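haha ok so turns out i had the wrong file open the whole time. this is the CORRECT one, sorry everyone. sequence first:
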Amino acid sequence: MNWTWNIRSRDGGMNGLEFTRATTAGGFTRVLIHAAPAQASVEVFADDGGVVARGDVDRAGEYSPITLLTLEGGLTRKEVWPDDSLLGLPVLIAGGEVGILTEWHHAEDHSWWKWSVEFSNHTGRPADWAPPDPKVKH
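then structure:
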């Protein structure tokens, strides 16, 4: 079963602004978000319309270009500078795209970063489809 991730920025417009509506295979308890809004409302839905998770997650602390969302006992948010333990996770990108983080490098002082994301897709969105790649982490 696929999951649809709706993320809205709560700090723009009267009712917020759509940031992304992205679809992944189901079962991901951790996803990354590129350039996440400081104040975000998150809803995760299964294909059958059932709510997987829902909540508001706001940035606490310094900005990072990557945010880690975790779905274990509720939604939690953490701004991260990825290391090898996060490679293989899906990255939700504004506008609805989802890629898999394949590389990440940054300066110790966080003054620069370089990253790679791999994109793949399938027509018809079959349930739980994932590219045939052992690097994808659920």
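The CA atoms of residues 38 and 59 lie 5 Å apart.
again sry for the mixup
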